[in-house]
Amino acid sequence: MSKDPVLVTGAAGFIGFHTTLRLLQDGRNVVGIDNLNEYYDVQLKKDRLQELDNFQNFIFVKGDIAEKNTMESIWSEHGPFKEVIHLAAQAGVRYSLENPYSYITSNCMGHLTVMEMCRHTEGFKHLVYASSSSVYGGNEKLPYSTKESVDQPISLYAATKRADELMSYTYSHLFSIPQTGLRFFTVYGPWGRPDMALFIFTKAIIEGKPLPVFNHGEMRRDFTYIDDIVEGILGTLNNPPPKDRKSPPCRVLNIGNSKSEQLMDFIAVIEDSLGKTASFDFKDMQPGDVKETYADIAETEELTGFSPKTSISDGIPRFVTWYKNYYDVA
Ligand SMILES: NC(=O)c1ccc[n+]([C@@H]2O[C@H](COP(=O)([O-])OP(=O)(O)OC[C@H]3O[C@@H](n4cnc5c(N)ncnc54)[C@H](O)[C@@H]3O)[C@@H](O)[C@H]2O)c1
Question: How far is the C-alpha of 161 from the C-alpha of 144, rounded, in Å?
C-alpha cells in the first residue's frame, strides 16, 4: 500500500466524499480540497467532511482550486501529489444558464491549475478527472461512445467539460502527463446532491408536493450508483494510460451503468421505496438538457475492470433510507 498521499479535489462534494471515504478505508493517506461554495446546502458538505474527519489519515484544506497560490501551498505543505483525483467543479446543466462565470472559473481555470501542478511534479503518475455525459449534447447515436465526435455541446457546463478534455489532451501531448477523463452518467446514492432529480423527487413526495417532470416524462437516463462510480474511479487510478510514445498518455472513458431507464419507471421505484404516491407537474423540455443518455462502457471494462453492479431497484431504496435518517423524517 502506497504511503504517498492522494489529492482529491471537491472532497466535500458528493462523489469526492465517497471516493475519499473509500481511499481512507483502504488505508491511503488523503488530502482533500474544497471551497465549500454555496451552490447547494453548505451544511451537507460540512456533514460529509465530519464523516471524513473520523480518519487520522485525512487532511482537509478549504480553498479554491482555481487559485494558483492556494494550489502551490497545498502542494508544498502536504504534497507532492503523484496521484490526483480531480472532482471539484461547478456542476449542474441548468445553473450554467444563470451563473456562467462560475463554470469558467472552477471548471476551466481550476482544471488548468490542477494540470500545472501535476506538470511540475517529478514522477507524476496519474491525473483522473471528472468529465460528464453532457459532452454528448444532442448526439443521437446510442449508446454514447467515446469514439463519436462531441463537438456540439448544448450547455455551457458541457462546453467547459469538453474544454477540460481538450486541455488535458494538449498537456499530455506536451508534457507526457498520464491523464484519464471520466464521463460520468447521472450519479446517485446516499449523501447525493440536492439539485439532482432523485433528491428533488424524494423531497417532493415526502412533502406531498407535485414533482416537476420535464419533457412530460419523456426522458431516459443512465443512472449510476455511487459505489459503482467509486470502484470505477479507483480502478482507473490504478490503470494509467501507458507512456508508449505512439500517442499521448491520455484517454477519456465513459463511466455509466450502461442501462437507459425511463424517467417514469425511476419515479415509480422512488414511490415504492417511500410507500407513497407522487403527483406530477409536467413541464416542457428545459434548454440545455438532453432527452436520453446511455453509456457504452466496453472500453472502460476492458481497460480498468469496471463492472457496475447496482440496479435502480437496489440503489434507490439505499438513498431513501439515508435521506429519511439524515433529515429525520418518518
Ligand atoms: N453527480 C453527477 O451525476 C455527475 C455527472 C457528470 C459529471 N459530474 C462531475 O463530477 C464531479 C463531482 O460531482 P458531484 O456530483 O460530486 O458535485 P458536487 O457539487 O457535490 O461536488 C463538487 C465539489 O467541488 C467543490 N468546488 C466547486 N468549485 C470549486 C473550486 N473552484 N475550488 C474548490 N472546490 C470547488 C464544491 O464545493 C463541491 O463540494 C464534478 O466535476 C461534476 O461536474 C457529476
Answer: 16
